[in-house]
Amino acid sequence: MNLPPVDRAALVRDRRDLHQHPELGFQETRTGTLVEERLRGLGYDVKTGVGRTGIVGLKGTGARCVLLRADMDALPIEEANEVPYRSRHPGAMHACGHDGHVAIGLEVARRLAAVTLPGAVKFAFQPAEELSGGATAMIRDGILGAPPVHAAFGVHVWNELPVGMIGITAGAMMASVDEFDITITGTGGHAAMPHRAIDSVLVAAHVITALQSLVSRRRDPFEEAVVSVTQVSAGHAFNVIPPEATLRGTVRTFGGKFYEDAPRLVEDTARGLARAFGADATIAFRRLTGPLVNDPAMADLMKSVGEDIVGKNRVKGDIRTMGGEDMSYFLKQVPGCFAFVGSARADGTSFPHHSPRFDIEEDALPIAAELLTQTTARYLTG
Ligand SMILES: [Zn+2]
Ligand SMILES: [Zn+2]
Fold it and tell me: pTM of the predicted model, to two decimals?
């Protein structure tokens, strides 16, 4: 296959342009228009409004169809970087690298448009990854059909890895993301007369502590899991016992029994403790994203491509994170693989994802574009 060379300058130009114009989940209209126009210009069959603000580009026909996914959304963060391509939208920032993903997707589309493929390639420029609703919205709108998709691939620029490294792990690589809200209802009263009230704050404190015992005492130690309580709110005055306290938090796993049991365990713990104090608790438990699981054969394929690009000892097969990704929904429906492409400075001074100082080493962009392009070519010709 005679692919044109990777255009690093175009990747950087696109990424910086997108970085200056970040758009939050389901509001990616400028980004979507740019993608739509570019794909049309390259001769793709384009559909807009797939999963609200998502864009789909299709090229080719054949026995097999590959889905390539790039998420487009930014985060509600005020950028703290002083760079020429700093965000121009107050309160919004590409602090996860999705600006890079769109630029990478467009470059892969450009190169694949220049060759005759023995199959079809379908680009999913996906909205709202950070809100966890984008992938499911696109699936609901039929992205995996007409033509049916046989394999899915995607990349994430990754500041937990130095630039020049690639992480591809077979099996579970990213965690499930659950969210819970607990409302504890006691009765309010005077801080000086606690016996006349049921103290929702004290119950909340016990619930927070007891939730930590789920990981240490209710989970098989060979299953990874995290339970974090991240928001606590109650009360408005120093001398009033508040009638209500609310807790919010998250459960992360790589699947398994604890994943299945978590909604019941959180509910039983909060309810049981509240009742022991004469209070009550209501729990809302939401499964936002399932664990991201790479198909072993597809991971092998992508790994061998990665090794050809950066060298055998620069592709790591054991990178996992308790972070979540809604690419998991595509990989639940079709076999595929998601890869981390190192984007951190080699000296370890890069800031993590979702930091207001997040930025990437742009040498990651051509590596990621090459990885996706060659993986597609090798899958369709293999
Ligand atoms: Zn993110
Ligand atoms: Zn991300």
Answer: 0.92
